[in-house]
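I'd like us to work through together how a protein chain folds, taking it slowly. To get us started, please write out a protein record for me. Label the sequence line and the structure token line clearly, so we can match residues to local backbone shapes. Once you have written the record down, we can walk along the chain together.
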Amino acid sequence: MKSVSSRRANIAIALVVIFIIGYVSLLLVSNYISHVRLVDASQKQFIYVVEKQALAVQYFLNEREKDLTEISSCRELSTYFENKALGMSLEYGLTTSLLNIQKHFNTILQSRHFDTQRIYDWIALIGPDGKTSIITSPEKNKTASVRLLNSLASSLEEHKRIIFVKKGTTTHALFWKPYFFKEQVKGYIVADMPLTSILDYLIDAEAIRAASQSYIFCSDCATLYPEDTLVSYARLDKAVNAEKKNSGILHLSNSTRGGENLSVVYATIGDTNLKLLNVFPEEELSAGVKPRNTLLIMLLLSLLIFVGVGLTFRKNIQKQLLARQVEESLRNAEELNDRNKKLSAEIFERTKVEKALENANKEIAEASAVLNCMLKSATEFAIAAIDTDYRIIHFNPAAERILGVKAEEVMGKRVIDIHSLKDVEHDRFRRGLDIAQKDGKYEYDILRENPNGEEQRMHAVVMPMYDDLSNIVGFNFFALDTTQKYMADEKLRISEERYRTLLENIPDIVFSVDQQFVVRDINMPPHLSYGLEAKDIIGKPLKKYVHKNDHKHLFELTQSDINSRRTDRRGLRFRIVPEQGGCSLGRIEYSLRL
């Protein structure tokens, strides 16, 4: 009887042990599944955060490219190349143009900054051969920029829109854009930006993990910034290039830092060949119960089932079961507490990201307001914008004044349907938009009658507008009234023609010399040629044809007249010395143009 009751007690104990072990196994399996789901959710959250940061970096890079577009469209550059095409030298006109370009570059350089740190180190206008620095801002970086671009000149056109170069321990990004003048490349606009601007102000590595590190990775130009012993470039290059997706997470084993396993969250930055990486120890991602540990626990529990059935010491078995239950309960409580902490941290980070996004939207709104104010404040340029349906969406006050049309009369209307702008040729208008879309801009001159019936001349430029995905969303129209300039040029041309006619009809020899007494022009009647021809004298110093003693006296009198502001002198005699020898006496009368 006692053995039967003992047998029943043992069976009951075995059943209890099996039940308890089964229950604990169910808890372990449930905990393992929950952990897997939590890790998967964490990975998706990490990828989402890195994608958002990559999107912010893409927007930042697009803004830098817009800076180059803004510089290339400035009037100072076109004025410089127009003056250069007209044959102006540095002494007459080009120096002023270069100073205006320098001033514009300095304005861009000072206006682009994070807090007190400037975004760019320097901005340069490089010659078409990629080697000659026309102008650099600030000027002290001219030698460094030329030396840097000399190494890239032979393959500048083969590079992407961003070039990465290493300067000591810092990596710099070079943004470049060709400058076209009359459909020819006249140079390259280059801006130097250290990548510290991106990592310090746009990327928050701790938004993913407290012990993580962010990098900018470019496999095409073999760049990993910042350089660190945490992970090697070769390992990252092989692993990242093997991935076909734009974003995801990688796991690297036996990294360069003590053989530690690492997790790498990556995301492609827009349509560039850049990737944003965030690297942190893999153990922070996979903390908790691992599959191998779970299998070992299950095997141990299976052994306990067989051992428990044959145990005769029920009290020891009960104590062991109670101890295991208490241990599992404490473990579950600790894991639950850890998950609550992680959830609280994620909520805090999400709130932080939402606040940053709100601030960014506010800054964009303020920037839009400032841009609108700048467009309205432009008094010399007529600025209009149209969408892809040719409807006018912006018409500044200067456009109203120059074109003689009120903004309320044209806003929202199609350009080709506006009756008051009937002098716009439809075929030429569409052809101009096609050229602007293909070449980046279209320049042309307009001859029209203003509302007063007077002749009006304008120089116009049409440029396309792009969104963040480089899709055309419309066109910008810039026009400058050149009527006064044209009239002044005509007056100057007529005056020069009259001066030439008058000069040719004077019966005496007339020299035009510069301050160094080099002959610039001469009128020499045949009866007073002294055996000389005008083509042989022009460009040579006057002293070659004047006796040396007379030339010295003539030079001293001229300098005295310049200092005393005397504009004419008559009756001065001097000796003319032709090239074939001999000497003739002449009399000089001159007037000074001060």
Q: What stands out?
A: The first strand starts at residue 113 and ends at 114. Residues 213 and 279 are 5 Å apart (CA to CA). The chain is about 45% helix and 25% strand.
